[in-house]
Structures are given as structure tokens and as C-alpha cells.
From TrEMBL:
It comes from the Bacteria. It comes from Oleiphilus messinensis. SUPFAM superfamilies: Nucleotide-diphospho-sugar transferases. Keywords: Transferase. GO terms for molecular function: transferase activity. Gene3D superfamilies: Spore Coat Polysaccharide Biosynthesis Protein SpsA, Chain A. This is Cell wall biosynthesis glycosyltransferase.
Length: 413
């Protein structure tokens, strides 16, 4: 059990009482009568073949308060889409599986390409965006949760706690982010969050002085968590990045659109573990290295829109300041690990910090060379204004795909 401290400028909802799940779910069932509840799952086909997703789906099958589950399926062939439909048919709720690589959704994407509105990069951002489009056109739910599909420690209590703040009609929150301690197998994980994001935010505050936006981001206890929930209207006019800047981008957008008393974070799990990526892969084109570059670029772009002027010198100063702060953090994490009987490999932590420091300069140079580049996906408001019946056709295309390739089992309500 944690403390009840309120840090920063958004509300933190703690786990103070180990409340029984059935009691919480009964309450959510009552809330769902006023605010129908949904779930979005951005999923890779390959994740269905891991241990995580079968466990997640078994848990979801027991959730009594969801009106709609929208699964965005990436990187699936026709045979794999068919298998996926069979896999999800164990869900008793109404569910839809978006075959993002299938001909119907690809044809729709061609129309977006022609209007220069298509999400540019493949990946989670694009997947989430199509799921949101489907959710808006289906118009069945009022509040929605979204979580990753690689959580190996999944328990349906995570979902109940994640959706509660936007489900309770007495609460005024528009957006809620999950947080947890990423500790597993005797180790402290969450390398990008701990070793890049937090020290970089502190370094930026030191270099540029106090800034509301930086204090805001620094208030999130796990800014990179893939778990968040929101009221439906949040999604019509946010522009989300299509790359790894997705999580930071969503936090920036909700800050731009809402007062901070409409935003919160909630403790969703005692333990959390997921698939770990390599530190670096394919010459920075993959792994945590690519993630760190995308996130840093997203931060620099946002600061530029807040009036900050960058040049080569500023990036060198940020790198040096970051490096010193990050090394101090390693000592903090090491001691935190030790008092808890956990292990922390100082050498690999320092290797990660050295890589991230280099990537700060890379991200900075990229920003200077391409000041107008922004991998943002257009808002759904904009798509509807450019192609008025697009959303209806997206809705129809998903139904047609499911009817053609499934066993007609999906319409349980
Ligand atoms: O949240 C993070 O920091 C990244 O997703 C990396 O996480 P990991 O260190 O737990 O793999």
C-alpha cells in the first residue's frame, strides 16, 4: 500500500484500501447505465500468440460492465485475421476487430492518403487512431479505457481502477492516466521512463526555468504508461503523434484542451510487467533508442510551440544537464532497489543513460534540420470535415470484414 501524497498539479488517486473487486465492479455496472463504458485494445497479431493476450482475454471475458470492446489488429494476414476473430469469440461482450491491413481498411486509408490526412507511420498511434474513429462512429460508449496487449501480469482489477475515474458520474475528469511500479523478477524496469523522461524534464526545468508545461508532465508518476482512460469527447479534436511520442503527445493535447482539474492519474496495479525491448536495435531504428529519440523530439516540438528557441548550443547544454541529473538518479534507484532487496545493474543503467544523452543531441539536430516536421495524425473532426461520410464507411467496413471472415458470433450485446 502506498502513501496518499498529492504531488504536482493533477489529482492522484491512490490505492489505499485494497477494495474488493466485486464491490468496485458492481459500482461500475451502475455507472455504466448512465455512462456506457468501452475498451480499446491496440494489438499486434503476434501478441495473440504470446502468454499475455490469452490471459488478458480470459480476464476480459469476466468483466460485467463493458458495452463495447474495440480491438485494433495490426500486422495480420487474412488467415491471421480469421484466427483472431475466432480467438476473440470467447468475449461475451459486443466486440469489433479492426483488420487494419485488410483491403477494406486499406482502401479507406488510400482516400486519406489522397487528402493528405493519412497517419504516416505504421504503429500503435495509427492503430489507436482508427479504433477511436470506429468508437466515435459506433457511438455506443461514453467513457473508454485503453491499455497495452503485452501486459503479462494482467488482472481485470487493472481495468476497473483505470476506467473508474471517467466512469463515476460524480467525478468531473475528462482524462486519466494509469501508474504503477514496474518491478518484476526482482528488478526495477521502466528504463525510458526512469532514465530518460524524468531526468530530462528536470534538466529542461533547470535550463529554461520554471514552466507550467514541464511541471505538468513531471506530475505524472508514469508518463509513458500505455494505460489511460477518457471521456469520448476528448478524442474528437486531439492530434496524436504516430510514433513513440504517442503517450507524451496525448498528455500534451489534453493539457492544451482542458483545465488541470479535469485530468488525473490513478494507481492501477501493485505489479506490472510487459514485453521488454532491446536497448538499441537496427542502428537506432528500433528498441528503446528509437523510443527515446521520438519522445525527445516530441518534447522539443512542444516546447518550441511554447516559445522556446533552440540552437546547437542549447541542445549541448540540455545534454550535459540531463547527464548529470540522470547519473544522480541511478544512485537513487540503486538505493531504492537495495532497501527493497531488489537488484539494479548500475553498468547497464549507465549505458542506457549514455545512449539517451547522445540521442538528445540527435533528436535536437533532427529538430533543427526539420523544424516543420510533425508526425501528427489529423483530428477526427478534420477528417469528417474533409470527407463527410468517412466515419460511416469505416463503421460499415469493419462490420463487413467481420461478417465475411468471422463466424457471425460477434454481435452479442
Ligand atoms: O516505460 C518504459 O520506460 C519503456 O517502455 C521501457 O520499459 P522496460 O524497461 O520495462 O522494458
Amino acid at each position: 500500500m502506498g502513501d496518499f501524497y498529492q504531488n504536482g498539479i493533477i489529482t492522484t488517486l491512490h490505492n489505499l484500501s485494497k477494495r474488493p473487486l466485486d464491490e468496485m465492479e458492481a459500482e461500475l455496472c451502475r455507472f455504466a447505465k448512465k455512462r456506457p463504458l468501452g475498451l480499446i485494445l491496440p494489438c499486434l497479431y503476434s501478441e495473440l500468440e504470446t502468454e499475455a493476450m490469452p490471459n488478458i482475454t480470459r480476464h476480459l471475458a469476466q468483466v460485467p460492465y463493458l458495452d463495447e470492446i474495440i480491438i485494433g489488429l495490426d500486422r495480420a494476414t487474412e488467415a491471421e485475421y480469421r484466427k483472431a476473430l475466432k480467438f476473440f469469440s470467447q468475449l461475451p461482450q459486443r466486440y469489433r476487430v479492426l483488420w487494419n491491413d485488410g483491403p477494406r481498411l486499406r482502401n479507406l486509408d488510400d482516400e486519406l492518403i489522397a487528402e493528405k490526412l493519412s497517419p504516416r507511420e505504421p504503429g500503435k498511434g495509427r492503430n489507436v487512431w482508427f479504433c477511436i474513429g470506429y468508437m466515435l462512429s459506433s457511438n455506443r460508449v461514453e467513457s473508454v479505457a485503453l491499455h497495452d496487449c503485452d501486459i503479462v501480469t494482467y488482472d481485470r482489477e487493472l481495468l476497473a481502477r483505470l476506467i473508474y475515474p471517467v466512469a463515476n458520474p460524480n467525478f468531473n475528469y475528462e482524462f486519466c492516466k494509469g501508474f504503477y511500479a514496474r518491478v518484476a523478477d526482482g528488478k526495477i524496469n521502466g528504463r525510458v521512463s526512469r532514465l530518460l523522461v524524468t531526468p530530462l524534464l528536470r534538466a529542461l526545468k533547470k535550463v529554461f526555468g520554471p514552466m507550467d508545461y514541464l511541471d505538468y508532465l513531471d506530475s505524472y508518476r508514469y508518463p509513458l504508461a500505455g494505460e489511460f482512460s477518457f471521456r469520448k469527447d476528448v478524442t474528437t479534436d486531439i492530434r496524436i503523434p504516430s510514433d513513440w511520442g504517442l503517450e507524451i503527445g496525448v498528455l500534451s493535447e489534453v493539457k492544451r484542451n482542458y483545465a488541470t482539474n479535469r485530468l488525473c492519474q490513478v494507481d492501477i496495479a501493485d505489479v506490472y510487467d510487459h514485453k521488454h525491448q532491446k536497448l538499441s536495435a537496427d542502428n537506432d531504428a528500433g528498441g528503446l533508442s528509437k523510443m527515446s529519440i521520438d519522445i525527445t523530439k516530441a518534447l522539443f516540438r512542444k516546447l518550441a510551440t511554447n516559445g522556446i528557441v533552440f540552437n546547437q548550443e542549447t541542445f549541448r547544454t540540455i545534454k550535459a544537464t540531463y547527464f548529470r541529473i540522470a547519473l544522480d538518479f541511478i544512485e537513487t534507484y540503486k538505493n531504492d532497489a537495495e532497501i527493497n532487496g531488489l537488484s539494479l545493474d548500475v553498468h547497464s543503467e549507465e549505458l542506457a543513460v549514455e545512449l539517451f544523452a547522445r540521442n538528445i543531441v540527435k533528436a535536437g539536430n533532427h529538430f533543427l534540420d526539420n523544424p516543420m516536421e510533425a508526425p501528427f495524425i489529423p483530428s477526427w473532426n478534420r477528417v469528417s470535415s474533409a470527407i463527410p461520410n468517412f466515419m460511416d464507411r469505416l463503421y460499415e467496413a469493419v462490420d463487413l470484414d467481420m461478417a465475411e471472415f468471422g463466424d457471425g458470433n460477434s454481435d452479442k450485446v
